[in-house]
Design a protein that fits this description.
about 15% strand, globular, about 50% helix, about 150 residues, alpha/beta, single chain, five-stranded parallel β-sheet
């Protein structure tokens, strides 16, 4: 299952991404917000991040005006490696090298065609499991343990 969430600046892209996910036969957990509702992006980011960190969802997708606020907020949840990606190369690299589990994108600064390609690349790219990348993720996890009790 894929968790998805957006703020009020990105409901249009959330609809488009949900349609893509449903076309791919993915189960979707919609964490809000809905069109016409105002919200605070940290609340939505936390809902998506907790669904992923808690194991209910295998990945998350967050959309706001730029993707920046959502990525910052999601990365405050223990176990989340949220990557803000603006191109396909970054989406592929963050999965291969960082085993990112949440993707953040922006509606105001990115075209929908590009966003949909980024989403597909993120979901279709497995972690490489190379020792150097696994070691570095382990280092990130150890840092997280020191600061997130």
């Amino acid at each position: 299952m894929i968790a998805i969430g957006c703020d009020h600046a990105a409901t249009e892209y959330k609809k488009e991404i949900k349609a893509l996910l449903e076309k791919r036969k993915e189960q979707v957990l919609d964490c809000g917000t809905q069109e016409g509702e105002s919200c605070d992006y940290p609340v939505i980011a936390e809902k998506v991040a907790l669904a992923v960190a808690g194991g209910k969802c295998s990945a998350g997708i967050l959309i706001c005006g730029t993707g920046i606020g959502m990525s910052i907020a999601a990365n405050k949840v223990k176990g989340i490696r949220c990557a803000l990606c603006a191109d396909v190369f970054s989406a592929e690299a963050t999965r291969l090298h960082n085993d990112a589990n949440v993707l953040a994108v922006g509606q105001r600064n990115m075209g929908i065609g590009n966003v949909l390609k980024i989403v597909e690349t993120f979901l279709d790219t497995p972690f490489s499991k190379e020792e150097r990348h696994a070691r570095r993720i382990g280092q990130i996890t150890e840092t997280e343990k020191r600061y997130f009790k």
